[in-house]
Amino acid sequence: MTVRVAVIGCGVMGADHARVIANETPNAVLQLVCDPDKARMQDVADACGALHGLTDAAAVAGRADVDAVLIASPDATHADLALDAIHHRKPSLVEKPLAPSPSDILPLLSKENDLGHRLISVGFMRRYDPSYRAMRLAVSEERIGAPLVFHSVHRNVAVPEWFDGPMAITNSASHDLDIARFLLGVEMVQVSAIATRTQAQHSTCPPVMLTLVSEAGQIVTIEVHVAAQYGYDVRGELVGTTGTVELTEPRHMVTNSALNRSGAYAPDWRPRFAEAYRLQNAAWVAGVIAGQPDPVAASAWDGYVCGKIAETAVAALRSGTCHPVALMDAASIYKAK
Amino acid sequence: MTVRVAVIGCGVMGADHARVIANETPNAVLQLVCDPDKARMQDVADACGALHGLTDAAAVAGRADVDAVLIASPDATHADLALDAIHHRKPSLVEKPLAPSPSDILPLLSKENDLGHRLISVGFMRRYDPSYRAMRLAVSEERIGAPLVFHSVHRNVAVPEWFDGPMAITNSASHDLDIARFLLGVEMVQVSAIATRTQAQHSTCPPVMLTLVSEAGQIVTIEVHVAAQYGYDVRGELVGTTGTVELTEPRHMVTNSALNRSGAYAPDWRPRFAEAYRLQNAAWVAGVIAGQPDPVAASAWDGYVCGKIAETAVAALRSGTCHPVALMDAASIYKAK
Amino acid sequence: MTVRVAVIGCGVMGADHARVIANETPNAVLQLVCDPDKARMQDVADACGALHGLTDAAAVAGRADVDAVLIASPDATHADLALDAIHHRKPSLVEKPLAPSPSDILPLLSKENDLGHRLISVGFMRRYDPSYRAMRLAVSEERIGAPLVFHSVHRNVAVPEWFDGPMAITNSASHDLDIARFLLGVEMVQVSAIATRTQAQHSTCPPVMLTLVSEAGQIVTIEVHVAAQYGYDVRGELVGTTGTVELTEPRHMVTNSALNRSGAYAPDWRPRFAEAYRLQNAAWVAGVIAGQPDPVAASAWDGYVCGKIAETAVAALRSGTCHPVALMDAASIYKAK
Amino acid sequence: MTVRVAVIGCGVMGADHARVIANETPNAVLQLVCDPDKARMQDVADACGALHGLTDAAAVAGRADVDAVLIASPDATHADLALDAIHHRKPSLVEKPLAPSPSDILPLLSKENDLGHRLISVGFMRRYDPSYRAMRLAVSEERIGAPLVFHSVHRNVAVPEWFDGPMAITNSASHDLDIARFLLGVEMVQVSAIATRTQAQHSTCPPVMLTLVSEAGQIVTIEVHVAAQYGYDVRGELVGTTGTVELTEPRHMVTNSALNRSGAYAPDWRPRFAEAYRLQNAAWVAGVIAGQPDPVAASAWDGYVCGKIAETAVAALRSGTCHPVALMDAASIYKAK
C-alpha cells in the first residue's frame, strides 16, 4: 500500500517535509502541497514532484486522493486543520505547537475521545532521534540505575528582534519539555523560570533557565538560548543513581587546520535532526498503513501537556516564583497509551 | 516509477539488503528474493515481505517482473550473475568483490564496453557514508590544501581460524583501497605489505600494513586488522598541505558508569555503515529510474582495479618487496566517468 | 630563599599537601607536620621526609623555624589556627571552608584589616587549574563576548550515609561558588536550591541544583551530586553572547577494549586537581617569598563570601524559595584586590 | 640536598630548561647558564635568576660549584660536552640527539663502560609524558593483551626551507623511535621509509612514513610530517591482541564559536610536552641526588640505538628498499638496565 500524503504549508518546515515525503519516505507519495502563496507552493511542488498543488488548505483533507495530511502551516492554523482532518477521518502529522494556546487543543482531545481512537500525531521529532532513542533504551535496560535528573540545553544561532523569553519557552523549549517527559515517562508537576538580565544582550533574546520537578521527584533543567550565535546545539544528559548517559552531536568529520581541531555546528536544526524527521515521517506513514499511530509518536494529549507546561513556565518567568503545573484529567484513550 | 528489485543471496548481506530494499528504499519494491537454501530464502522473504521466492539464481534476471538485480550471493557466483543481468539488460548492484580474481572481471568490462554503457554497480558502500562524503567535499573545497597522505584503519572483531593475511587484503582491505581512490581521485601505482609475526597471535589473523603510492606521488597507508577483538572500528584521515580531515565514529550516546566514560563499538560493520547501505541502495534505485548509474557508485572498472591492487598487495606481502600495480587500459566507457 | 612550611593535619588532605610541599614545590621545605594522632602524623612525616613532627597544633605557628603554615586540620579548627598564624604574623594557606559558619570568619577579616594586609589564603585550588585559567583568559580576551551563564557540575563517587543536601552545598558546592565568582568577577545576589526527592536514592545524598543570579544579571547553575557513583567528574561551561568555553577532563589515554572506547574517571578529586594543588602551593610559597599573597589566591574575604552564599543556599533549599544573598561590606584591604 | 645545575646553551631549548630548573624543579638551583653569545646568555640568566653566567662551555663541568650539567647547546657539541662531564664525574642530561652521527656516540659508551656506571641521560622527554606512561602501564597490566603494532604520528607546523626528509628522520622521528622502543621494550631489526613526491609541496619538507619491524615481530609505523602547518600534533596508538590504547592531546578547554567546536593546537612542542620536561628534569635531579640515573631516563645506549635506527632509515629512504638495523653489542652496563 502507498500512502498519498498532502503537505499543507510550504514555508521552511513544509518544504522540508515535502522533500522528505517525496524522496526519503518509503511507501509514501507526495500527492499534493498546499500554500496560500501560490508561487511558493509551486516552487515546492516542482522541486519535490508533487502531483497536485493547492492554495486552499480547507479543501485538502476532504479530497478522495489524499490519505493523510501533514500540517506545517502557521501555528495559529494547526488546530483547525487538524480538526478538519479528524472530520474526514484522515490521520494527520501536525508540526508543533499543536496550537498556540493549550486551551485551543481541548476540542481536538474531545473529538478524538468521541471517535474512540487517535488520528493526530504531533511533530516532536526528537523522539525519533537515534541519540534520544539510545538514552531511553539505556534507562529501560537499567544501565544508569533510576533516573534522577535530566539536563537539556537548546541553543539556536539567532532569532528575530521581536522574539522574547516567553516565545523561547513556548516555541523552542517545548521540544525539551516533550523529550524530558518521553525519557522519564512521568509528568512534570512544578516549574520555575529565570532569564538573564545583563546589559550585554539588550538587542537579543536572553538565555532562559527552566527548572522542573516531576511527579516522581526528579529534576529537569532546560537552558533555552535562542540567540547563542555560535551554532545550533542541542545537548542532553540523563543522570541516574549509578551513572549517566549523554547524547552526542552527530558529527561526521573533524578538521585540523589553522591551529585548531574543530567540528562544525549546523546553522539550524535541519541537519542536526534530519534523521529524526526522516524516521518520524516514515513511522507516521507506517502507522497510517497499519491503521494506528506509531506508539513512539507524540499524541494530541502530549501536545496539550507540553503547551500547558510551557504556558505555566511563562507565568513562572513573569512572577519570579515557582508554579504548579495544573493539567486536566487525560481522557481514557490517552491513558491506554 | 517503482523499481522491482530481485535480491539474490539470503545470507547476512543478502538478508540485510532485502530489508533495506523493502523498508528503507523509496521507489523500490522487493519483488523477489532468491537462495538455493529454500528455508533461509523463505525466512528472508517472510521477514521482508518479498512478493516472490526463488531457489534458482539463473532464473532471476530474465523475469519480466524484475527491473534490477541486487547480487549478494557467494563471491564466486558474482561475475556470472552480473553477466546474466547484462545479458537481460538489467542493472545490477553487486556486492564486493565483483569476482574473486580480477581476471574474472575482464569479460564484464568487455561486455559493458560492447554495450556502450554501464549496467553494473559494485557495493563499495563507503562512498555513500556521510563521513567520507564530507572528507571528499573538504578536499574539493580545498579546506586542507592538496592531499598528501591518506591513512585508513580497518578493524574487525574476529574472523574464522582459516582467515589469513591475504584474505584480509582481498576481502576486507578492498574497501579501503576503493575509498582511497575515491577520495584522492587517482590510481595507485605501487604497493608494499607486511604482517606482524609475533608469538601472541598464533591462532588469529595478524594485522597487515599496506603502503601504497599513487600516481600523483601521494602515500596511502592501510592497517587491516580483522581479529582486533575490541570492536568494529574504521578510521580514516586525509592529510593535506595545510591541514587534515578525519572521519568520526557515528556514535549517538556516551555512557558514564563504573569509573569510565565510554562509547560503544558495534560488533560488526552493519550498524557502522547502516546509513551508507541505505543511501547506496537508494541512489542505485534512483539510477535505475534515471537510466544511468549514480555517478558516485563504483563501476565494474573500479571493481577490477581494486581487485588488481589487492592481488598485487598479496604478492607483495609474500615477497616482502614493493610491487608495481599493473592495470590494463580502461575502456572508453570507463574513462568518460 | 627557602620557605619552611608546617603542615597541620595529617588526614587525606594534609597528607597530600605534605607530599606536594616536600616533593613538588620549588623553594619550599617541609619543616614539620602536625596531627594529634601521633601514629598518623609519624606516617606522613616519614613518607614525606618532614624535619619535625608535632601533635600540638597550637605550638606550630609560633615556632621560629616555621615560615608559613598550611592548615588542613578538621574544618572546625581552621579559623582558630588561622588566627594563631596571624598572631605570629605567619602567612597561612587554609583548606576550605575557612570556617564551618561564615560568622566565624568575621574575626579573621577584622584582624587582617587591622593589620593592614592579608596573610590568609584559602585553598580554593580550582583557581589554579589550567582549564579554569584558560576559561578566564578566554573571557578577558573576549573570545565569547560578554558572559551570560555559567554552568557547573560537581559529582563525587560517594559520601557517608550521614552526608546530606546542606552538607553537599557547604562542603562541596563551595568550590563551584568560588570559581563562578572567579570567572565572572562579580558577586552573587540571589540563590535558589532544590534537591531531587525520588524513591530511588533513599540511602544516599540526592543531587542538588543551585540557581544563582549575579549582580550583573548573569545566571549560575550548579549541580552538586556527591553520590554520583560513576566517577569524580567536574564540568564547567561559560556561555557568552557570541560563544561558549568548556573545561575538559584532563585525560591522558583512551582505551579500546571489550566493545567500548573509554576514558577513566578518577575515584576522587586528587588526580583531577593534582596540577591545581601543585600550582596553588607553588604560588603560595612564591607569595610568601614575595611578601604578599598571590593575586589569584582566594582571600579570607572570598572564604567569607562563599560561606555566606552557601549558608543562604541551604536556607533556600529548606524554604523552597529564592533567597537574597546578604553580604557585609568588604573592608578596604579586600576592595583593593 | 640541593643540586647545583649548569645549563649549557641558551637557545630555545636551553632557555626553557633553565626556566624549568629555576622555577619548577624541586631540590635544584640554577647555578649557571652558559652560551657563547653573551647577550643571549645574559638574558636567560636574568630571566631565570641564574647565579652565574659563562660564555665558555669548556669551563663548566670542572667547576666545583656545579653538581650536574644540562647540555642544550648545538647538536654537534653534545658529545664533547658530555665527555667533558664524564671526565669530571658529573651527571649530565643531554638534549637529543646525543650526537649527529651514532658513531660519535661510541666513545661515550666506552667511557661509561670503563667507569662502570652511567652518568649520561638523554633528553627523550616523552618517556615522562603522562600519556605514554599510562600506555606503558596499560601494557604491563595486560589491558590490551600482547602488543602487535605501534602507530606514531609526529607533526610540526613548519621547518626552514633547507629541512629535508632525512633531517625529519634524524631530528624529529628520533623521539618516535625512542618511545616505540620504550613502550614495546624490544629493539627494532628492520626499517623501510618512503616520502611523498607530489607537486603540491615543492617548497616544504614532505611527510615521511617509516615502517619498522621489532625483534619480536611487531610493526611500528611512524609518520613524521614536519611541515604540517595546522599545528603541533603528536599521536600514538598501541594495538594489542585484545584492544588498543591511544594517547590523548592534553587540552584544557573547548571553544564553541563561529559555527565550530574547537580545541587549540600548540604552535610547537613546548606546551604539549611541558609536563614531560618538568617531570624529566625533576627525575634527573632526583637521580643526581640518589647517585644513579632515574631508570626511566634514556641512556647513552638509547641515544646510540635511536641514532643508528635513524641512520638506517635515512639509507632506506634513499634506496627505496627495506634495511636491517645493525647494532653493535651493548656493553654490560647497559644490559643490566
Note down, in words, how this protein is organized.
Four copies of one chain form a homotetramer. The first copy, chain A, has 337 residues and is α/β, with parallel strands linked by helices. Chain A has helices spanning 12-24, 38-48, 78-87, 106-115, 130-140, 165-184, 269-272, 274-290, 300-319, 332-335; strands at residues 3-8, 28-34, 52-54, 68-71, 92-94, 120-122, 147-155, 188-195, 208-214, 219-225, 233-240, 243-247, 253-257, 260-264, 323-324. Helices cover 36% and strands 24% of the residues of chain A. The first copy, chain A, has a seven-stranded mixed beta sheet. Chain A has a six-stranded parallel beta sheet with strand order 3-2-1-4-5-6, sandwiched between helices. In chain A, strands 13-14 form a two-stranded antiparallel sheet. The longest helix of chain A has 20 residues, at 165-184. Chain A has two domains: 3-125 and 275-298, Rossmann fold (3-Layer(aba) Sandwich), CATH 3.40.50.720; 127-272 and 308-324, Dihydrodipicolinate Reductase, domain 2 (2-Layer Sandwich), CATH 3.30.360.10. In chain A, strand 11 (233-240) and strand 12 (243-247) form a beta hairpin. The A-C interface holds A 145-146, 148-149, 151, 192, 194-201, 204, 206-207, 209, 211, 213, 216-219, 221, 223, 225, 228-230, 239, 241-244, 320-322 and C 145-149, 151, 192, 194-201, 204, 206-207, 209, 211, 213, 216-219, 221, 223, 225, 228-230, 239, 241-244, 320-322. Strand 12 of chain C pairs antiparallel with strand 13 of chain D, so a sheet runs across the interface.
